[in-house]
Amino acid sequence: MEDSILVICVDRDNDIGEKIGVGGPVFGRKDNLEVSKNLALEDPEESDANSIFGAIKEYDSLKAQNKKVNIATLIGDSRVGTISDEKIAEQLDSTIKKYKPKKAVFVSDGAEDDYILPIIQSKLQILSVKKIIVKQSSQLESGYYMIIKFFKELAHDPQTSKLFLGIPAIILVLYAILGGLAWRFIFGLVGIYLVIKAFHLENFVSAFIGELSATFSKDKLSFFCYILSAAFIIIGSVLGYNNYNLYLNSNFLISALSFIHGSLIYYFAAGLAILTGRLLYSYDKKQKGIKYLTYYALLFSIYIVLENSVKYIILPDYNVIYLITSILLGFIIILIALITEKIAYSS
Questions:
Q1: Could you say which of 17, 121, 319, 335 is the most buried, measured as most Cβ atoms within 10 Å of its Cβ?
Q2: pLDDT tens across 63-85, in order?
Protein backbone atom coordinates (compact mmCIF):
# COMPACT_ATOMS: atom_id res chain seq x y z
CA MET A 1 0.00 0.00 0.00
CA GLU A 2 1.34 3.42 -0.99
CA ASP A 3 2.32 5.76 1.84
CA SER A 4 0.21 8.87 2.24
CA ILE A 5 1.97 12.23 1.71
CA LEU A 6 1.07 15.41 3.55
CA VAL A 7 1.89 18.80 2.03
CA ILE A 8 2.45 21.13 4.97
CA CYS A 9 2.45 24.91 4.90
CA VAL A 10 3.20 26.89 8.07
CA ASP A 11 2.29 30.41 9.14
CA ARG A 12 4.40 30.62 12.28
CA ASP A 13 3.52 34.20 13.30
CA ASN A 14 -0.27 33.90 12.70
CA ASP A 15 -0.56 36.44 9.87
CA ILE A 16 -3.58 34.49 8.59
CA GLY A 17 -5.39 34.74 11.92
CA GLU A 18 -4.44 38.39 12.44
CA LYS A 19 -5.49 39.56 8.95
CA ILE A 20 -8.46 37.40 7.93
CA GLY A 21 -9.46 35.77 11.23
CA VAL A 22 -8.93 32.14 10.24
CA GLY A 23 -7.60 29.63 12.76
CA GLY A 24 -5.53 26.55 12.09
CA PRO A 25 -5.20 23.95 10.91
CA VAL A 26 -6.66 24.59 7.44
CA PHE A 27 -7.44 21.25 5.72
CA GLY A 28 -7.89 20.46 2.03
CA ARG A 29 -7.22 22.18 -1.27
CA LYS A 30 -10.49 24.13 -1.37
CA ASP A 31 -10.15 25.73 2.06
CA ASN A 32 -6.44 26.49 1.55
CA LEU A 33 -7.17 28.14 -1.80
CA GLU A 34 -9.89 30.25 -0.19
CA VAL A 35 -7.55 31.31 2.63
CA SER A 36 -4.71 32.20 0.25
CA LYS A 37 -7.01 34.28 -2.00
CA ASN A 38 -8.54 36.17 0.93
CA LEU A 39 -5.11 36.77 2.46
CA ALA A 40 -3.71 38.05 -0.85
CA LEU A 41 -6.70 40.40 -1.24
CA GLU A 42 -6.29 41.67 2.31
CA ASP A 43 -2.54 42.17 1.99
CA PRO A 44 -1.03 41.72 -1.50
CA GLU A 45 2.49 41.89 -0.01
CA GLU A 46 1.87 39.00 2.40
CA SER A 47 4.37 36.20 1.73
CA ASP A 48 2.22 33.55 3.45
CA ALA A 49 -0.32 33.83 0.61
CA ASN A 50 2.41 32.91 -1.88
CA SER A 51 3.48 30.08 0.39
CA ILE A 52 -0.03 28.56 0.44
CA PHE A 53 -0.28 28.95 -3.35
CA GLY A 54 3.03 27.11 -3.59
CA ALA A 55 1.73 24.34 -1.34
CA ILE A 56 -1.40 23.99 -3.50
CA LYS A 57 0.77 23.75 -6.62
CA GLU A 58 2.85 21.02 -4.97
CA TYR A 59 -0.36 19.23 -3.96
CA ASP A 60 -1.66 19.38 -7.54
CA SER A 61 1.64 18.11 -8.91
CA LEU A 62 1.63 15.07 -6.60
CA LYS A 63 -2.06 14.49 -7.33
CA ALA A 64 -1.29 14.44 -11.05
CA GLN A 65 1.20 11.63 -10.35
CA ASN A 66 -1.62 9.63 -8.74
CA LYS A 67 -0.05 9.98 -5.32
CA LYS A 68 -2.11 9.67 -2.16
CA VAL A 69 -1.73 13.24 -0.94
CA ASN A 70 -3.38 15.73 1.42
CA ILE A 71 -2.68 19.37 2.25
CA ALA A 72 -2.82 21.34 5.52
CA THR A 73 -1.76 24.78 6.68
CA LEU A 74 -0.65 25.06 10.28
CA ILE A 75 -1.01 28.42 12.02
CA GLY A 76 1.03 29.57 15.01
CA ASP A 77 0.83 32.66 17.19
CA SER A 78 1.91 36.29 17.00
CA ARG A 79 4.07 35.55 20.08
CA VAL A 80 6.66 33.81 17.96
CA GLY A 81 8.72 31.26 19.83
CA THR A 82 7.69 28.59 22.31
CA ILE A 83 4.00 29.59 22.29
CA SER A 84 3.61 29.59 18.51
CA ASP A 85 5.64 26.40 18.04
CA GLU A 86 3.59 24.58 20.67
CA LYS A 87 0.38 25.48 18.83
CA ILE A 88 1.85 24.28 15.54
CA ALA A 89 2.96 20.99 17.14
CA GLU A 90 -0.59 20.43 18.47
CA GLN A 91 -2.11 21.16 15.05
CA LEU A 92 0.38 18.81 13.40
CA ASP A 93 -0.68 16.02 15.76
CA SER A 94 -4.36 16.55 14.91
CA THR A 95 -3.51 16.61 11.19
CA ILE A 96 -1.57 13.36 11.43
CA LYS A 97 -4.45 11.80 13.34
CA LYS A 98 -6.87 12.89 10.59
CA TYR A 99 -4.88 11.90 7.49
CA LYS A 100 -2.40 9.31 8.92
CA PRO A 101 0.44 10.32 6.55
CA LYS A 102 3.87 8.72 6.58
CA LYS A 103 5.77 11.35 4.59
CA ALA A 104 5.66 15.12 4.24
CA VAL A 105 6.55 17.91 1.85
CA PHE A 106 7.27 21.11 3.74
CA VAL A 107 6.49 24.38 1.95
CA SER A 108 8.01 27.51 3.51
CA ASP A 109 8.05 31.21 2.69
CA GLY A 110 11.54 31.84 4.08
CA ALA A 111 13.96 31.57 6.97
CA GLU A 112 11.48 32.13 9.81
CA ASP A 113 9.42 28.99 9.16
CA ASP A 114 12.53 26.81 9.04
CA TYR A 115 12.44 26.71 12.85
CA ILE A 116 9.41 24.42 12.48
CA LEU A 117 11.26 21.84 10.40
CA PRO A 118 12.64 19.85 13.39
CA ILE A 119 9.09 19.51 14.79
CA ILE A 120 7.86 18.01 11.51
CA GLN A 121 10.92 15.78 11.15
CA SER A 122 10.29 14.31 14.60
CA LYS A 123 6.89 13.02 13.44
CA LEU A 124 7.12 12.46 9.67
CA GLN A 125 9.66 11.57 7.03
CA ILE A 126 10.49 14.72 5.03
CA LEU A 127 10.48 14.09 1.28
CA SER A 128 11.41 17.64 0.30
CA VAL A 129 11.41 21.26 1.42
CA LYS A 130 10.10 23.91 -0.95
CA LYS A 131 10.96 27.58 -0.51
CA ILE A 132 8.40 30.00 -1.94
CA ILE A 133 10.11 33.39 -2.03
CA VAL A 134 9.17 36.32 -4.26
CA LYS A 135 11.86 36.92 -6.86
CA GLN A 136 14.59 39.46 -6.01
CA SER A 137 13.68 39.20 -2.29
CA SER A 138 15.48 36.02 -1.12
CA GLN A 139 18.58 37.73 0.25
CA LEU A 140 16.51 40.60 1.60
CA GLU A 141 14.19 38.31 3.55
CA SER A 142 17.03 36.21 4.94
CA GLY A 143 18.86 39.37 5.98
CA TYR A 144 15.67 40.75 7.51
CA TYR A 145 15.13 37.67 9.69
CA MET A 146 18.78 37.66 10.75
CA ILE A 147 18.48 41.29 11.87
CA ILE A 148 15.18 40.61 13.66
CA LYS A 149 16.69 37.60 15.44
CA PHE A 150 19.76 39.63 16.44
CA PHE A 151 17.68 42.43 18.00
CA LYS A 152 15.40 39.92 19.76
CA GLU A 153 18.44 38.31 21.37
CA LEU A 154 19.75 41.73 22.36
CA ALA A 155 16.46 42.67 23.98
CA HIS A 156 16.01 39.40 25.92
CA ASP A 157 19.59 38.61 26.97
CA PRO A 158 20.44 40.72 30.07
CA GLN A 159 24.18 40.59 29.46
CA THR A 160 24.20 41.63 25.81
CA SER A 161 21.43 44.20 26.28
CA LYS A 162 23.48 46.01 28.93
CA LEU A 163 26.49 46.13 26.64
CA PHE A 164 24.90 46.88 23.26
CA LEU A 165 21.87 48.89 24.40
CA GLY A 166 22.66 50.20 27.87
CA ILE A 167 26.04 51.83 27.18
CA PRO A 168 24.94 53.58 23.93
CA ALA A 169 21.81 54.80 25.76
CA ILE A 170 23.92 56.32 28.56
CA ILE A 171 26.23 57.92 25.99
CA LEU A 172 23.32 59.53 24.15
CA VAL A 173 21.74 60.84 27.38
CA LEU A 174 25.03 62.30 28.63
CA TYR A 175 25.79 63.90 25.28
CA ALA A 176 22.30 65.41 25.13
CA ILE A 177 22.70 66.92 28.61
CA LEU A 178 26.38 67.92 28.71
CA GLY A 179 27.36 68.35 25.06
CA GLY A 180 31.10 68.11 24.36
CA LEU A 181 31.95 67.77 28.08
CA ALA A 182 30.08 64.47 28.11
CA TRP A 183 32.95 62.66 26.39
CA ARG A 184 35.03 62.76 29.58
CA PHE A 185 32.20 61.16 31.51
CA ILE A 186 31.64 58.66 28.69
CA PHE A 187 35.28 57.55 28.64
CA GLY A 188 35.18 57.36 32.43
CA LEU A 189 32.07 55.15 32.41
CA VAL A 190 33.52 52.89 29.72
CA GLY A 191 36.74 52.67 31.72
CA ILE A 192 34.85 51.70 34.89
CA TYR A 193 32.90 49.06 32.96
CA LEU A 194 36.10 47.59 31.49
CA VAL A 195 37.74 47.50 34.95
CA ILE A 196 34.71 45.65 36.36
CA LYS A 197 34.78 43.11 33.51
CA ALA A 198 38.58 42.71 33.51
CA PHE A 199 38.83 41.99 37.24
CA HIS A 200 35.54 40.02 37.39
CA LEU A 201 33.92 42.40 39.88
CA GLU A 202 30.37 41.85 38.61
CA ASN A 203 29.25 39.95 41.72
CA PHE A 204 30.77 42.54 44.04
CA VAL A 205 29.12 45.44 42.21
CA SER A 206 25.79 43.59 42.05
CA ALA A 207 25.93 42.83 45.78
CA PHE A 208 26.79 46.45 46.58
CA ILE A 209 23.91 47.79 44.48
CA GLY A 210 21.56 45.28 46.12
CA GLU A 211 22.71 46.34 49.56
CA LEU A 212 22.33 50.02 48.59
CA SER A 213 18.75 49.37 47.51
CA ALA A 214 18.03 47.47 50.72
CA THR A 215 19.45 50.25 52.89
CA PHE A 216 17.27 52.80 51.14
CA SER A 217 14.13 50.90 52.10
CA LYS A 218 15.20 49.62 55.54
CA ASP A 219 18.12 51.59 56.93
CA LYS A 220 18.05 55.26 55.99
CA LEU A 221 21.19 56.10 58.01
CA SER A 222 23.31 53.59 56.08
CA PHE A 223 21.92 54.94 52.81
CA PHE A 224 22.93 58.44 53.90
CA CYS A 225 26.49 57.19 54.53
CA TYR A 226 26.67 55.76 51.00
CA ILE A 227 25.41 59.01 49.48
CA LEU A 228 27.95 60.91 51.59
CA SER A 229 30.73 58.67 50.29
CA ALA A 230 29.65 59.37 46.70
CA ALA A 231 29.77 63.12 47.42
CA PHE A 232 33.31 62.81 48.87
CA ILE A 233 34.44 60.84 45.79
CA ILE A 234 33.10 63.52 43.44
CA ILE A 235 34.69 66.35 45.47
CA GLY A 236 37.98 64.47 45.69
CA SER A 237 38.01 63.81 41.94
CA VAL A 238 37.38 67.48 41.12
CA LEU A 239 40.03 68.77 43.53
CA GLY A 240 42.45 66.09 42.41
CA TYR A 241 41.95 67.15 38.80
CA ASN A 242 42.55 70.78 39.72
CA ASN A 243 45.75 69.79 41.50
CA TYR A 244 46.74 67.73 38.46
CA ASN A 245 46.46 70.84 36.26
CA LEU A 246 48.89 72.68 38.54
CA TYR A 247 51.56 70.08 37.76
CA LEU A 248 50.61 69.66 34.12
CA ASN A 249 54.03 70.81 32.88
CA SER A 250 55.82 68.22 35.04
CA ASN A 251 56.43 64.62 33.99
CA PHE A 252 53.53 62.17 33.91
CA LEU A 253 54.39 60.49 37.23
CA ILE A 254 54.45 63.78 39.13
CA SER A 255 51.18 64.87 37.50
CA ALA A 256 49.47 61.59 38.42
CA LEU A 257 50.76 61.74 42.00
CA SER A 258 49.56 65.35 42.29
CA PHE A 259 46.04 64.10 41.49
CA ILE A 260 46.33 61.57 44.33
CA HIS A 261 47.70 64.26 46.67
CA GLY A 262 44.74 66.55 45.98
CA SER A 263 42.04 63.90 46.28
CA LEU A 264 43.34 61.36 48.80
CA ILE A 265 41.86 62.90 51.97
CA TYR A 266 38.39 62.94 50.35
CA TYR A 267 38.73 59.35 49.11
CA PHE A 268 39.73 58.41 52.66
CA ALA A 269 36.61 60.15 53.98
CA ALA A 270 34.53 58.31 51.36
CA GLY A 271 36.01 55.01 52.51
CA LEU A 272 35.15 55.83 56.12
CA ALA A 273 31.58 56.65 55.11
CA ILE A 274 31.21 53.37 53.20
CA LEU A 275 32.60 51.32 56.10
CA THR A 276 30.31 53.12 58.53
CA GLY A 277 27.31 52.44 56.30
CA ARG A 278 28.16 48.74 56.10
CA LEU A 279 28.73 48.64 59.87
CA LEU A 280 25.31 50.17 60.53
CA TYR A 281 23.61 47.87 58.01
CA SER A 282 25.17 44.58 59.16
CA TYR A 283 25.51 45.37 62.87
CA ASP A 284 25.61 42.16 64.94
CA LYS A 285 25.00 42.37 68.68
CA LYS A 286 27.22 39.33 69.35
CA GLN A 287 30.20 40.48 67.36
CA LYS A 288 29.42 44.19 67.84
CA GLY A 289 30.96 44.97 64.49
CA ILE A 290 34.46 44.19 65.78
CA LYS A 291 35.56 42.96 62.37
CA TYR A 292 35.13 46.49 61.02
CA LEU A 293 37.84 47.68 63.42
CA THR A 294 40.36 45.93 61.19
CA TYR A 295 38.87 47.53 58.10
CA TYR A 296 39.07 51.00 59.66
CA ALA A 297 42.66 50.34 60.72
CA LEU A 298 43.63 49.09 57.27
CA LEU A 299 42.01 52.07 55.57
CA PHE A 300 43.73 54.56 57.88
CA SER A 301 47.10 52.83 57.48
CA ILE A 302 46.83 52.88 53.69
CA TYR A 303 45.88 56.56 53.81
CA ILE A 304 48.81 57.72 55.95
CA VAL A 305 51.36 55.64 54.01
CA LEU A 306 50.08 56.87 50.62
CA GLU A 307 49.82 60.46 51.82
CA ASN A 308 53.39 60.55 53.08
CA SER A 309 54.75 58.61 50.11
CA VAL A 310 53.22 61.08 47.63
CA LYS A 311 54.49 64.07 49.62
CA TYR A 312 57.97 62.58 49.76
CA ILE A 313 58.06 62.27 45.96
CA ILE A 314 56.47 65.56 44.85
CA LEU A 315 57.71 67.84 47.66
CA PRO A 316 61.53 68.23 47.51
CA ASP A 317 62.00 69.35 51.15
CA TYR A 318 59.78 66.65 52.69
CA ASN A 319 61.54 64.75 55.49
CA VAL A 320 61.92 60.98 54.94
CA ILE A 321 61.44 60.47 58.68
CA TYR A 322 57.73 61.22 58.25
CA LEU A 323 57.42 58.49 55.62
CA ILE A 324 59.20 55.88 57.76
CA THR A 325 57.12 56.88 60.79
CA SER A 326 53.86 56.54 58.81
CA ILE A 327 54.83 53.04 57.66
CA LEU A 328 55.66 51.90 61.19
CA LEU A 329 52.54 53.55 62.58
CA GLY A 330 50.34 51.88 59.94
CA PHE A 331 51.85 48.49 60.69
CA ILE A 332 51.31 48.91 64.44
CA ILE A 333 47.70 50.05 64.00
CA ILE A 334 46.83 47.04 61.79
CA LEU A 335 48.56 44.66 64.18
CA ILE A 336 46.64 46.02 67.19
CA ALA A 337 43.35 45.76 65.26
CA LEU A 338 44.02 42.14 64.24
CA ILE A 339 44.92 41.14 67.82
CA THR A 340 41.81 42.87 69.18
CA GLU A 341 39.60 41.11 66.60
CA LYS A 342 41.11 37.72 67.42
CA ILE A 343 40.55 38.21 71.15
CA ALA A 344 36.96 39.33 70.57
CA TYR A 345 36.12 36.28 68.42
CA SER A 346 37.77 33.82 70.80
CA SER A 347 35.94 35.13 73.87
A1: 17
A2: 888 888 999 999 988 887 788 88
Domain boundary among 125, 144, 163: 144
How many domains does the chain contain in total? Answer: 2
Determine the distance from the C-alpha atom of residue 187 to the mean position of all C-alpha atoms in its chain, rounded to a whole number: 20
**Dist. CA 7–CA 99, nearest whole Å:** 11
33 burial level (CB within 10 Å; 0-12, 13-18, 19+): middle
Which of 39, 46, 7 lies closest to 22 in space, CA to CA?
39
Same domain, 210 and 131: no
Residue 166 lies in a domain: no
Instruction: Respond yes or no on whether the N-terminal peptide bond of residue 168 is cis (omega within 30° of 0).
Output: no
Q: Angle at the Cα of 230 (from 227 to 235), degrees rounded to 5?
A: 130
CB proximity list for 145: less than 8 A, separation 6 or greater: 110, 111, 112
| C-alpha to C-alpha distance for 114 and 16, rounded to whole angstroms | 18
pTM surpassing 0.85? no
User: Is the residue at 217 inside a domain?
Assistant: yes
Range of the domain at 211: 177-346
Distance from C-alpha of 289 to C-alpha of 201, rounded to nearest angstrom: 25
User: In 245-273, which positions are buried (b, 16+ CB within 10 angstroms) versus exposed (e)?
Assistant: eebeeeeeebbebbbbbbbbebbbbbbbb
